[in-house]
Design brief:
This protein has 292 residues and is of the alpha/beta class. It is built from nine helices and 14 strands. The chain has a single domain, classed as Acetylglutamate kinase-like (Carbamate kinase). Helices cover 40% and strands 22% of the residues. The strands form three sheets. Strands 5-8-2-1-11-13-14-12 form an eight-stranded mixed β-sheet, sandwiched between helices. A four-stranded mixed β-barrel has the order 6-7-10-9. A two-stranded antiparallel sheet has the order 3-4. Pathway: Amino-acid biosynthesis; L-arginine biosynthesis; N(2)-acetyl-L-ornithine from L-glutamate: step 2/4.
């Protein structure tokens, strides 16, 4: 009956058709993506994620990309013989290290992402938190009195330059170097937290964390125990029960902050799964854990 028409092409067309309601729903809405994990390192995954970001932009979704670059910073420090030090999970950032963080994040990593988006037909603008006072931070003071240097927490987001880019059809790509509120010096800030703050300021429809885990699991050794939907009020009990623990806690905290700040839905998804972004946004089942 359908002589000459490949079954695979028909299947692909059906998938596109099923995405239509979601394209209509999210067109014109803002989605903030925290880009990190293996999807920033593995070349195949990197290209897939970037192409998906461009596709989202092409169907009218206002995409904001926020990125870190811990492995790249570690590599650069290693090249100059400087050891990476951490206290309570925070990178000790003296003046020399801060210069390297700024060079790597706002320079190489940021421009590599911008270049890749442009190469795939998108229009991207590279920004860091210092540009137009985008991110203001105050120095983090640890209770034990240890000075970890130029490490800050976000106290203000000036979204005017982000809105300007979005309204012009560009994809803002933001590296998380912030401007000190009191001393005007650059500060290293946590990329997950910065992305959550930006999501809140923009009143984003979605905040998506691309990670190296499937999401929140009831049993960390069994991916079939994925919790696909999670209400904010249920989280304290899951932390108390040690179901949410370790490195998942700060990611959950970011999602909770975004939801409490007005973001409708937040998601922790597995960037190791090809097209995880599209699966999350354009399918009913989604992927990973949705927190609302």
């Amino acid at each position: 009956m359908f002589s000459g028409i490949n079954d695979i092409n028909i299947h692909n067309a059906n998938i596109l058709s099923q995405a239509l309601p979601y394209i209509q729903k999210y067109s014109g809405k803002t989605v903030v993506i925290k880009y990190g994990g293996n999807a920033m390192i593995n070349e195949d995954l990197k290209n897939t994620v970037i192409r998906d970001i461009v596709l989202l932009n092409c169907v009218g979704i206002k995409v904001v990309v926020v990125h870190g670059g811990g492995p790249e910073i570690n590599e650069y420090l290693s090249k100059i013989g400087k050891k990476s030090e951490f206290v309570n999970g925070l990178r000790v950032t003296d003046e020399e290290t801060m210069e390297i963080v700024q060079t790597v994040l706002a320079g190489k990593v940021n421009k590599d992402i911008v270049s890749l988006i442009d190469k795939n037909g998108g229009k991207a603008v590279g920004l860091c938190g210092i540009d137009a006072n985008l991110l203001k931070a105050r120095k983090i003071e640890l209770q034990n009195g240890i000075d970890i240097g130029y490490v800050g927490e976000i106290v203000d987001v000036n979204d005017s330059i982000i809105q300007h880019c979005l309204n012009g059809g560009y994809i803002p790509v933001i590296s998380t170097v912030a401007l000190g509120q009191e001393d005007g010096k650059p500060y290293n800030v946590n990329a997950d937290l910065a992305a959550a703050k930006i999501s809140t300021k923009l009143k984003a429809e979605k905040f998506i964390l691309i990670t190296d885990v499937p999401g929140v699991l009831m049993d960390p050794n069994d991916e079939s125990t994925l919790i696909s939907e999670l209400k904010v009020e249920k989280i304290p009990q899951l932390i108390n029960d040690k179901i949410i623990c370790g490195g998942m806690i700060p990611k959950i905290d970011c999602c909770v902050e975004a939801v409490n700040g007005g973001v409708k839905r937040t998601h922790i998804i597995d960037g190791r799964v090809p097209h995880s972004l599209l699966l999350e946004i354009f399918s009913h089942e989604g992927i990973g854990t949705m927190i609302s």
